[in-house]
Specification:
single chain; 250 residues; alpha/beta; 7 strands; 44% helix
C-alpha cells in the first residue's frame, strides 16, 4: 500500500514542489489550499500524472474549525497518514516593530503557530501507536527567521517561527516512544511568490549578497530536505531543525 503524505499549503511554492517530488518517489499526496482552486487542481493533476493518488482540500489552518474537517476528508479519501508536512504559513510586508498592526500579528500567529500546533495534534493522533497508529513522521515549516529574530520589519513572523522550533523539540521528545519522528526545516531566502505577495518582489536579488552562497534557494531544494526527513533514510533523526538557507544565519 502506498504511503500517504499530507501537506498544508500545497498549491504553490515549497508545498507544491514537495507534492510533486513526493509523487515522483511513490507517495500519494493530499494537500490544502486557501483560495486558488485552479492552482491546487493543477498540482493535484501533476501528482496524478505520475501515477499517484492526490486530492486538494480547501481549508484555512488559521480557522481552527477547518482543521478537524480537513483531517476527516483525508481519512475518508486515504484511510491512513504516514507523513505530515506542516507547511502553511504567511509573511507580511516589512513594518517597524512598533508599528505592526495587532490584527496582522493575530493572523500570523493564528496560521503560523496556533493552526500549526492544532494540525500537528491531529496528525499525531493518527500516527501514535497508543492511538492505534503505525507511527510516522512530521516535518514542520520553520524559517531561518526564527534564528535571526526575523528580518527588519518582520519580527512578528520570526517570533511565530520561533514557537515552531520549540514545538518541534517538545513533540519529538514526547512522541518518540509512539513511533513518531518530528523535525523542522528552516528555509532562508527561497525564490517563491511569497516575497511578491508581501510587497517586496526584489527581496532575494537585493539580499543575495548577504548569503554565503550568494544566491537565493529554490523551492525544490527545500522539498528535497522535507522528503528526506519524511523518508526512512532519516530513520534515526528526530527533534532537529534543519537549515536550508545557503549558509544564511551562520
Amino acid at each position: 500500500m502506498s504511503k500517504v503524505l499530507l501537506i498544508t499549503g500545497g498549491s504553490r511554492g515549497i508545498g507544491a514542489a514537495t507534492a510533486k517530488l513526493a509523487a515522483s518517489r511513490g507517495w500519494d499526496v493530499a494537500f490544502t489550499y486557501l483560495t486558488n482552486a485552479a492552482a491546487a487542481e493543477k498540482v493535484a493533476a501533476q501528482v496524478r500524472e505520475q501515477g499517484r493518488k492526490s486530492i486538494a482540500i480547501k481549508a484555512d489552518t488559521g480557522n481552527l474549525q477547518d482543521i478537524p474537517r480537513l483531517f476527516a476528508e483525508l481519512d475518508a479519501a486515504f484511510g491512513r497518514l504516514d507523513a505530515f508536512f506542516n507547511n502553511a504559513g504567511i509573511f507580511g510586508p516589512a513594518v517597524p516593530f512598533m508599528d505592526i498592526d495587532p490584527e496582522r500579528i493575530q493572523r500570523i500567529i493564528a496560521i503560523n503557530t496556533t493552526g500549526a500546533i492544532v494540525a500537528a495534534q491531529e496528525a499525531a493522533r493518527r500516527m501514535a501507536r497508543s492511538r492505534g497508529g503505525q507511527g510516522g513522521t512530521i516535518v514542520h515549516m520553520s524559517s531561518i527567521a526564527s534564528k535571526l529574530g526575523g528580518a527588519t520589519g518582520t519580527v512578528d513572523y520570526g517570533a511565530s517561527k520561533g514557537a515552531i522550533d520549540s514545538l518541534t523539540i517538545g513533540m519529538a521528545k514526547e512522541l518518540a516512544g509512539e513511533g513518531v519522528r518530528v523535525n523542522a526545516v528552516r528555509p532562508g531566502l527561497i525564490d517563491t511568490e511569497i516575497h511578491a505577495n508581501a510587497g517586496d518582489p526584489t527581496r532575494i536579488a537585493r539580499l543575495s549578497s548577504s548569503i554565503p552562497m550568494q544566491r537565493g534557494g529554490a523551492a525544490e531544494e527545500v522539498a528535497e530536505a522535507v522528503l528526506w526527513l519524511c523518508s526512512d533514510a532519516s530513520s534515526y533523526v528526530t527533534g532537529q531543525l534543519l537549515d536550508v538557507a545557503g549558509g544564511r544565519g551562520l
